[in-house]
Amino acid sequence: MKINEKKRDGFKGEKLISLPEFLFNRKSKDDFFLNSMYITHIGYFPKAAGHYRNRPKGCPDNILIYCIDGKGWFSINGEKQEVSANHFFIIPATDQHLRYASDVDDPWTIYWVHFTGSNLSSLNESLSIKSLVSPKAISFDEHRIKLWEMIYNCLEKGYSEENLNYANLSLYYLIANFLFPQKHTELTQTPGQDTSDKVIEYMKNNISVRLTIDDMATEFAYSPSHFQNIFKTKTGIAPIDYFIQLKVQRACQLLALSDLRIKEVAAAVGYSDPFYFSRLFHKIMGSSPLAYKSKHKI
């Protein structure tokens, strides 16, 4: 396979969430759920023409990649492996030179998750992760995609303790679905849309606007105080803080998947002052927008 040129503007329909580092430091070392195995990045790249990632120093996370269409490849320390549709593989955390890319003529469509843990080597040993470095064929199962989407949607709704625990515990189920595909049980639950879901959708549709509590409360015919109470009861987060998280989440996507300048990214998520945006971004993500862009640019 030929190596494609690096894609500079993302992929139509792509999804990407990078979780802030402070989330992994806020819990006690004795907290089993968040420390044993947790997601650091999660994404979906459809028909990812030009996708190419070069990691000369490897990656501190495990990387699960599931190819549902097209072709690609990866190499660890120069040892190349070909990947086709309905293949998955898990690259264990490594300091060796790591590269992966989509095929030029038939670019892959992939779902992927980066994850780590407080004792990653023991985790990898117990799950026999090293045996999964070679691509494994697996029958397509819509349930597997829905499970990934459930995890993604949960994280997209915010970083409350409940959401993080649910997403990270669901990661065990997702990995189990790959390790033991014949054992899974179909999920049939279809989530309904309550007021908080409608508010979140409203926030997403107005991500470039500086909404106030009064704006949101008026939109849903509540008093500001009652609106804040019902939203925080449901999500565990105040509506303005939640809205800011969504803005920063969108900014991360634009920084990683486009060539927009910091000023343009700031404007796209509703901040006319790029310096204020940069301070806010650093406070939440633990790095400046420029440093994030340099580190995570696809």
CATH topology of the largest domain: Jelly Rolls
Helix content: 40-55%
Structural class: alpha+beta
For the record, the CATH architecture of the largest domain stands as Sandwich
What is the residue-averaged pLDDT? 88
| CATH level 4 superfamily of the largest domain | Regulatory protein AraC
Low-confidence stretches: 1-5, 185-192
Q: What does this protein look like?
A:
This protein folds into two domains: 15-183, Regulatory protein AraC (Jelly Rolls, Sandwich); 195-296, Arc Repressor Mutant, subunit A, CATH 1.10.10.60. A six-stranded antiparallel sheet has the order 1-2-9-4-7-10. Strands 3-8-5-6 form a four-stranded antiparallel sheet, with no helix packed on it. The chain has twelve helices and ten strands. Helix 4 (142-156) packs antiparallel against helix 5 and helix 7 packs across helix 8 (224-235). The two termini are 20 Å apart. A hairpin with a 2-residue loop joins strand 5 (72-76) and strand 6 (79-83). With 298 residues, it is of the alpha+beta class. The chain is globular and about 60 Å long. The longest helix is centred in the middle third of the chain and has 19 residues, at 161-179.
